[in-house]
Amino acid sequence: MRRTVFNEDHEAFRETIRAFIEAEVVPVYDDWCAAGQAPRDFYYKLAELGVFGIRVPEEFGGAGIDSHKFEAVMYEETARAGVSFGGSGVHVLLGLPYLQMLATEEQQKRYLPKFVSGEEMWALAMTEPGTGSDVAGMKTTAKLSADGTHYVLNGAKTFITGGVHADRVIVCARTSAPREDDRRFGISLFAVDTKSEGYSIGRKLDKLGLKVSDTAELAFVDVKVPVEDLLGEENKGFSYLGQNLPSERWGIAFGAYAQAKAAVRFAQQYVQERTVFGKTVASFQNTKFELAACQAEVDAAEAVADRALEALDAGELTAAEAASAKLFCTEVAHRVIDRCLQLHGGYGFMNEYPIARLYADNRVNRIYGGTSEVMKSIIAKSMGL
């Protein structure tokens, strides 16, 4: 089935990214896994390649292309190679939409050139210990100083992807108490400089998968945040978060589909090379049926992911559609990767095989960006249930 979502420019970019991965990532990827993160200077290489500036206006050093399709190509190519670009994904997928939507002209002039060059890596700090998906229950506070020049930030965040290397973090904090009729009221967003006094990185979290993605706990003790670093209006942060969740969930959906596609590729290669009982694993009917079933699921997930991508680029992706795409693609990836690992036999359990890392990396897709259960709730609500 011919795809129509990509054009010649995207395919040329694909060749560039594929060559870059082979030269700059594959040879050192095991070292990154052992270190638990990609090195900071790798992000400068990504910046040189232009990947941080694709959707940034030309006046700030970007390419000014209003499309997520180049990001989609990167999802497919990193999955195909069984690697990742570390915590840099959140820089573009999570950081940039808030700057595009909320930053004033003055803020864009300060933030975006460094965003594009990799000089300032961005992350998003929403989740807190004990609150999980209940964003409205956050306890981190930001109180305006008596002279009105800065906010004083106190609290803690956890599961912050890109949190170790981040130079700026978009921190969600309470500037007002929740209202009795609206507990979501009172949250504001701040572009916090990680070099600020009182800002500290706690543990670099030891995760099941995504080993090269630096994920951290953050703590704020009387951190002074200049009023010039407030993003958008005070107390409206929850609605801002909601507006950007569809693009985040599309990213998770597309990444999961790409992982499932890669898993079939890895399994197909393995079963054609591996012999048991004097013949290849691929020659057994069970193997053919398993891979055929997996391919059919991947085909369906690709169609869903592509449709969501087109809707996102058109500015028409709804919260329910994004939730549906994320639910479907992540559940497909879970099933497909598990079955493809099974076809590897005992070797599928060894980390030297990409299918093992893929299995561990994929598991979080049904949790972060909103759990599968939360996705079902969103979809059910859109159905009037």
TrEMBL record:
Residue span(s) of domain Acyl-CoA dehydrogenase/oxidase N-terminal: 7-119
Domain Acyl-CoA oxidase/dehydrogenase middle: 123-223
Cited Gene3D superfamilies: Acyl-CoA dehydrogenase/oxidase, N-terminal domain (1.10.540.10), Butyryl-CoA Dehydrogenase, subunit A, domain 2 (2.40.110.10), Butyryl-CoA Dehydrogenase, subunit A, domain 3 (1.20.140.10)
Membrane-crossing residue ranges in chain numbering: none
GO BP terms: branched-chain amino acid catabolic process
Domain Acyl-CoA dehydrogenase/oxidase C-terminal: 235-383
GO molecular function: acyl-CoA dehydrogenase activity; flavin adenine dinucleotide binding
UniProt pathway: Amino-acid degradation; L-valine degradation
Superkingdom as given in the UniProt entry: Bacteria
Keywords: Branched-chain amino acid catabolism, FAD, Flavoprotein, Oxidoreductase
Pfam families hit by this protein: Acyl-CoA_dh_1, Acyl-CoA_dh_M, Acyl-CoA_dh_N
PROSITE patterns from the UniProt entry: ACYL_COA_DH_2
UniProt keyword annotation of NADP present: no
Family note: Belongs to the acyl-CoA dehydrogenase family.
Protein name per Swiss-Prot or TrEMBL: Acyl-CoA dehydrogenase
